[in-house]
Amino acid sequence: MLPLVYTFIFIFLLSTVKASSAWSTTPYSPAAVPLVVRSPYLSAWLPQGGGTALNGGWPNFWNGDILGWAGFVNVDGTSYNFLGVPAVADTSFGKSTQQSLIMTATKSEFVMTAGAVDLTITFLTPIEPGDIVNMSLPFAYMAMSVTPTDNNNHSVQVYTDISAEWLSGNDSMIVNWTTTVDSMIIHQSQLENQTLFADVADRIQQGSSYFAALNTSGTTYQTGRDIDVRAQFINHSVLANTLDTNFRGISDDWPVFALAHDFGSISSPSDTFVVAIGHARDPAVQYITANGDMQDRSSLFWSQYSTAADAISTFLQDYPNAVARAAAFDSKVLADASNNAFPPNYAPIVELSIRQAFGGVEYTISKDSSGAYNTSDVTAFVKEISSSEHISTVDVIMPMWPTLLYTNSTIGKMLLLPLLEYQASGQYPSQFACHDLGAAYPKATGWPTGGDVEMPIEETGNMLIMTLSYTQSTKDTSLVTTYYKLLQQWASYLKDNTLTPANQNSTDNFAGPLANQTNLAIKGIIALKAMAEMAAVVGDSTTSSSYNSTVTSYLQQWQELATAPASQHLVLNYGDPSSWGLTYNMYADKLLNTNIIPSSVYEMRKETSWYSSILNGSAWGVPLDTRHNYVLTGWEMWTAAFMTDSAVKDSFINFVHLYASNLLNSEPFGDWYDTVDGDTESGFKARPVVGAHLALLALPSTTSSSSTTTTATSTSSTSTSSSTSSKSSSATTSAALPTHVLVLTLAVAVLLGVFVPC
């Protein structure tokens, strides 16, 4: 094998080659740029694989559905397109030129040159884990401002619209809409025929889309056929303040909902025109209660606002403060992830993971018998996204757990509560923990006769580990004391089954079931240690001592069963010395600070030993195990977090960055990829599991957010298309990697011997 340094040379070559595209991208060019990533149903991305500019393609929903979203800027009477790729008959307009793209944990900001001005377009999705009410607001910002580049006066107007494609992926669906004009201009649109809790092809069949701005001087509006409304602005630099009342199908003359703003004649930076975009519904989630009744749960923000208009008004007026809070959050994330203990490529991965992680979560509240909101009953639910439609999948919450710990552990509690309450009620028939709360988000209706995707040791271990982790993080013992009997039931199952696991699935169920999995067994053993700790929390010293003894015995036996001859490495499954796999579940031992795994086991993964030899033969990363060539980025990060050698740790992180920035596809970040060709595996994209990338930040020795004690119901910190279709870090990298450069770089890597077979 060639030295590990050659792998780093390959990574360096591939990640620093400059492309021919004109704009710069910070921190790197992802497969898809997050524009609005607020919830499972408010998720807009710019496909970026080919180096696409903001005006080089239509924004997409996370599943690839086109979202009609167009933008124009008029400068001294000349129109330039800056968003989407609309074709508008009988008009003349140019294309603005993208100069830069900067992404942080909360925003994506483009600078486009149009004539003699630079237009800045900021897409801000506030991430405020310390204020759950604000986190529950299903809105995001689009902000536009202009700066002349020649110090001369220029007359400048901006325009943006959305189509009814934001409501459904089925373009034949009939929609209707209203526009309210007072202190605000609010375009509201919805499906004419709605079905509660119906998620069809990943799009919710209820609720309304909103597109709104403050009704300031120079702001105009219009609804109508896409080419008519866009032509009005292109030709006249202003909208007509008229409304189309001919409700129709999404693709029937493509109705759009438009806003425009006149900055006037300016020679210096303009003011900022802010638009709110959102999708809200009520109720949001159906949940099976402890007595078996179906409960309609509302989005938390409804408890603070009587109407959507009230919420939008506060949201728009809060923009300057939201920007300041976002900047503070972004700065903290960047500073923490730029710790000297981490390689430079770590911070960019963290920054582009946070919006995606929270983009799968919704925060809910129940009502009492009088119809009043029950502020003591606030829970959260997560959609698995792309790999299935399941709601509150335990092995989705577990990988994203590091992000919850880093930002606000209370959100973790909110996600665990529905799972704990449901299973404590006795409605789930198995002795082990369930996989999820239902097959079809947003219906958390449980599994009264079983039938969920069984991962007995996996999910049972996850629940025990996360419950202790939350308790350690917050010193709140309520989960342990309230659900102690259920936790004991789960621990009893693990005691009987975890040392030599039966032929069952782990979270990596796409790899198929396997008996005697080393990685699965150690998860269960760590979970038993968690049970011992939780028993001590409630003063049950007898149970605590018993489980501690079990852990000691099991761990010794596990080492003997799981270690290959000559103690070179851990095997994938007992009895197969030629097998190996990423034993990423050892991360939980570090996360809980239980330290039950001897240092000798971790040392088997030093640079001079096992993983070093595997890394030397890797092109895009270390495979998950010997059965396949693929790997998941979250498990690479979990493994990196407990590496005792910094070079090996850094290589895991650098491989994730290399894959994330390779531009071989154009979908929202996919966490499952092939380590031979660097391509994304199908069906895994936009998933909240990328919260696993914060694994290193969540460890007890690293800096974490101080927002964990904020109450769930706190209020805001302020007063609180074509003519036929709308289808219609510290490092700065190039916007795209041309194919010929990629091929050349890979060829160099081959010559260096990077692609030595494992």
UniProtKB/TrEMBL annotation:
Highest classification ranks of the organism: Eukaryota, Fungi, Dikarya, Basidiomycota, Agaricomycotina
InterPro entries tied to this protein: Glutaminase_GtaA, GtaA_central, GtaA_N
Keyword Transmembrane helix: yes
Segments crossing the lipid bilayer: 735-756
Residue span(s) of domain Glutaminase A central: 345-697
Domain Glutaminase A N-terminal: 106-336
Protein name: DUF1793-domain-containing protein
Assigned keywords, A-Z: Membrane, Signal, Transmembrane, Transmembrane helix
Region (Disordered): 703-731
Signal peptide location: 1-19
